């Protein structure tokens, strides 16, 4: 072969198989335990490329996980997607493992050590739907860091619960000795912005707490067991009570920071039985099963109202809340529905619970440029004519033209926090914590004398811990600490 021809062939092959071109053309649905790393720019319709990125991430993160602390975040490659067991993302660090009262240095990545919000009877290896600030897992996020939004109540009269986890890259960014962002005084600011490492992944899950004989076809859901905070029993008993419950996944946000998309790629999934279809989405009625968040017969034009008030110490959860009538206000992008159907028809997905989950949207920076607190990256799409809202996590924010990226930039990047909002709510002030703890103990000591013996309950399906342990970080106690500091 002539040398010139060999060079041409070699160059052609190297261009065709370069990572950039391979990723740019990665639109083929596949079921693998590995996600796509990035999405370069390419000509043509961008939705298949970004929606396939979202689905590949959903599949990889929901792959059965290896067991044990040393294997956190690792898939079990001997298993298939439909096999049983905790999923990869469920072995990521939980929010409460990193942002614990008193701001201690979090345990290493390959460890489940640390205090659990349900108390000493529960380890962090046990899935826990609770928070050190009692009701943080009841309320949805809002457009301001000053407050949370409303809760979501299903047709079984149960409050939805929310869980946040993140992978090692994001964890390492938070605990890095040069950052220590789990301490409030060290949080990034507009003058000194922070950035998470490329490859950081953050997930937020919405769960239904199931009841026995609730009329729900449990086989249609990914179901896990969790220790779930029981606010009514806690109020009655004066100590934190968590009960072991079956929980069903109804929503999942996935946010991934990549080298080419430093403003992150935003993906959101829902269970197909959540609400009635807006356009050509699947309809639970076709499967003869009930909607999770709608009675099935809403009056015309019904919006996701009435909205129950934010859950707080002044408005604790009810033991029999009214079910909500939630509807999807914007249709899902047709290209996105096409990708959903492509994945549902794959033999590795078809017939598993994962065929009952659909991609709601992908949003990405179309003009990422140089990252900065003022550069949102040109978010695309902007929700004009299609949804960018998850009915389980943005129930009350389904406006036309909505934007995940612009919302997160507004509430976090003003402070230089790289689109991540929850740190401002979770990071702790150790000095204030000590004062709050001391103040609470002075007030609570006469009330708790003789009562702490109740914490001896060590049943496998219930955990009880002293109320003062979790209240150290309760907003009410922190407010008391601030008052005491001013005296």
Structure description:
This protein has twelve helices and ten strands. It is α+β, with helices and mostly antiparallel strands and 487 residues long. Strand 6 and strand 7 form a beta hairpin. The radius of gyration is 23 Å and the shape is globular. It starts with a helix and ends with a helix. The model is unreliable at 1-23, 434-460 and 466-487 (pLDDT under 50).
Sum this structure up briefly.
The protein has helices at residues 3-16, 19-24, 47-61, 95-98, 168-175, 231-237, 334-344, 404-412, 422-426, 430-448, 467-471, 475-486, and strands at residues 93-94, 128-129, 161-166, 201-209, 223-229, 239-256, 265-271, 357-365, 379-380, 462-466.
Averaged pLDDT: 81
Assess the beta-strand content as a share of residues: 5-15%
Shape: globular
Q: Could you name the ranges where pLDDT drops below 50 across 5 or more consecutive residues?
A: 1-23, 434-460, 466-487
So how many helices? Answer: 12
Radius of gyration: 23 Å
Major beta sheet summary:
10 strands, mixed
Number of strands: 10
Distance separating the two termini? 89 Å
* Proportion of residues in helical segments: 10-25%
H-E order: HHHEHEEHEEHEEHEEHHHEHH
Which structural class do you get from the secondary structure elements? alpha+beta
What brief labels describe this structure?
487 residues; alpha+beta; 14% strand; globular; disordered N terminus; disordered C terminus
Topology record:
Blueprint: H1 3-16, H2 19-24, H3 47-61, E1 93-94, H4 95-98, E2 128-129, E3 161-166, H5 168-175, E4 201-209, E5 223-229, H6 231-237, E6 239-256, E7 265-271, H7 334-344, E8 357-365, E9 379-380, H8 404-412, H9 422-426, H10 430-448, E10 462-466, H11 467-471, H12 475-486
Parallel strand pairs: 2-5
Antiparallel strand pairs: 1-3, 3-4, 4-6, 5-6, 6-7, 6-10, 7-8, 8-9
